[in-house]
Design a protein that fits this description.
- With 456 residues, the chain is α/β, with parallel strands linked by helices.
- It folds into two domains: 141 residues, Aspartate Aminotransferase, domain 1; 273 residues, 3-Layer(aba) Sandwich (Aspartate Aminotransferase, domain 2), CATH 3.40.640.10.
- The strands form four sheets. The chain has a four-stranded mixed beta sheet. Strands 6-5-7-8 form a four-stranded parallel beta sheet, sandwiched between helices. The protein has a four-stranded antiparallel beta sheet with strand order 11-12-15-14, with helices on one face.
- Bound molecules: pyridoxal-5'-phosphate.
- The site of pyridoxal-5'-phosphate has 15 residues, from helix 7.
């Protein structure tokens, strides 16, 4: 390691003095102290005290192939030595950029053959937002501008991303959403389904889209956007009736269907893309995270032929792009990542082996007094906690229960994320069955601990 041990011993103080963290109350964080992660290997990370953690969250939903893969470092180094940067603005490209666009297209459905690159998932959402409007304008329908999104959805942290997201605490800071973005309900049966059966609730929530389009006028609506499975919102797997109904409505009302694949893409759900699990076909699909397994920042928008043919043949200049759109080193790392996913058959592994195994392991927690239900698709799972299982009564202090479980797990060497009263699981796709067992065992102890605390 090139950072001196003197500097490392001082890092906590330096961090408190100089580093502002995302989504953090800095006063509280500085008082508690940051955890400094130094090294990763497989499904484990190590902090500067030499403590080892099983990473049940793959960094931030992204380290799909696990830590420490030298092939990626070598691919990035080769590209860096060859050509560290060149732009894609003025009639140029680089070999890995173009090859990556082709490779991504080869894993998307037959209707998706083009990719626009960005540096992140947020930028990907900003990109399609503009693309959708350009598409409709090119077709002579410039009034089709509004975007319908969902409460408790997550689409990033730029102004457009945060506006399309449905996080109230984000909207409150900065007078969001911006004009032209409105929200409908989420398919969260456990928390909001009331007395309806899940299937009926799924249809009811999907039909909020139809009502909203009718209210705004289909002539004013460009697109509907949703994550296949809400990630940051709590790994909320919608009832089976939901997605087919959404797809039907988008088609009937002639609005674009945008599926945010930033988490669900690249094997997380046991398919290459989450929409494939639900059997729907998006017109546009933002991607990032698992595209490079987080080794370098890169995102993009997958563009269907419906939109792509109009953009290419009729729209003229698309006045949009980023300095790092198609960055060659990031693209080389992503290409190597996709090669590993293909060669090691990680998508199949999630679908046939560790995905079903995780589902079973999560179900084994359902006999816990505090577990209301568990949900998972592939290696994306959630444990819903409840105060009273029989009546689906949730805790008054939802934040607290999640934090208690999360912190207890952390003390016992497992990183999980809590969203309110749901514990979220998103381990690397290379996780073993025995590591899943360990993850569930530590989670159970965390649940026991929180159950005692919540009883007072
Ligand atoms: C993380 C995420 C984003 C934002 O990606 P960034 O790379 O953080 O900008 C967008 N959409 C979804 C569904 C995400 O989970």
């Amino acid at each position: 390691m090139s950072i001196s041990s003197a500097a490392v011993s001082n890092l906590g103080a330096l961090d408190a003095a100089h580093h502002l963290h995302p989504f953090s109350d800095m006063k509280k964080l500085n008082a508690a102290g940051t955890r400094i992660i130094e090294r990763g290997e497989g499904c484990h990370i190590f902090d500067t005290h030499g403590r080892r953690y099983l990473d049940g969250f793959a960094g931030l939903w992204c380290v799909n192939i696990g830590y420490g893969r030298k092939e990626i470092a070598e691919a990035a180094m080769r590209q860096m030595n060859e050509l560290p940067y060149y732009n894609t603005f003025f009639g140029t490209t680089t070999p890995p950029t173009t090859l990556l666009a082709q490779k991504i297209s080869s894993h998307a459905g037959p209707n998706i053959n083009r990719v626009f690159f960005t540096g992140s998932g947020s930028e990907a959402n900003d990109t399609w937002f503009r693309m959708a409007r350009v598409y409709w304008a090119a077709l002579g329908k410039p009034s089709k501008k509004m975007v319908i999104a969902r409460r408790n959805g997550y689409h990033g942290s730029t102004v457009v991303g945060a506006s399309m997201g449905g996080m109230k605490y984000m909207h409150e800071q900065g007078a969001l959403p911006i004009e032209g973005i409105v929200h409908i309900g989420q398919p969260y049966w456990y928390g909001e389904g009331g007395d309806l059966a899940p299937a009926d609730f799924g249809l009811k929530i999907a039909r909020e889209l139809e009502a909203k389009i009718d209210e705004l006028g289909a002539d004013n609506v460009a697109a509907f956007v949703a994550e296949p499975i809400q990630g940051a919102g709590g790994v909320i797997v919608p009832p089976e009736t939901y997605w087919p109904e959404i797809a039907r409505i988008c088609k009937a009302k002639d609005i674009l269907l945008v599926v945010d694949e930033v988490i669900c893409g690249f094997g997380r759900t046991g398919r290459w893309f989450g929409h494939q699990h639900f059997g729907v076909e998006p017109d546009l699909a933002p991607i990032a995270k698992g595209l490079s397994s987080g080794y370098l920042p890169i995102g993009g928008v997958m563009v269907s032929d419906r939109v792509g043919d109009v953009l290419v043949n009729e729209a003229g200049d698309f006045n949009h792009g980023f300095t790092y759109s198609g960055h060659p080193v990031c693209a080389a790392a992503a290409l190597e990542n996709l090669r590993i996913i293909e060669e090691e058959k990680l998508v199949e592994r999630v679908h046939d082996d560790v995905g079903p195994y995780l589902a079973e392991a999560l179900r084994s927690l359902e006999n816990h007094p505090m577990v209301g239900e568990t949900q998972s698709v592939g290696l994306m799972g959630a444990v819903q906690m409840a105060e009273d299982k029989a009546s689906r009564k949730r805790f008054e202090d939802r934040e607290r229960v999640g934090i208690e479980v999360r912190n207890h797990c952390l003390e016992n060497g497992l990183v999980l994320r809590a969203t309110g009263d749901r514990m979220l699981f998103s381990p690397p796709l290379v996780i073993s069955r025995s590591e899943i067992d360990e993850m569930i065992e530590i989670t159970r102890k965390g649940l026991d601990h929180a159950w005692r605390v919540m009883q007072g």
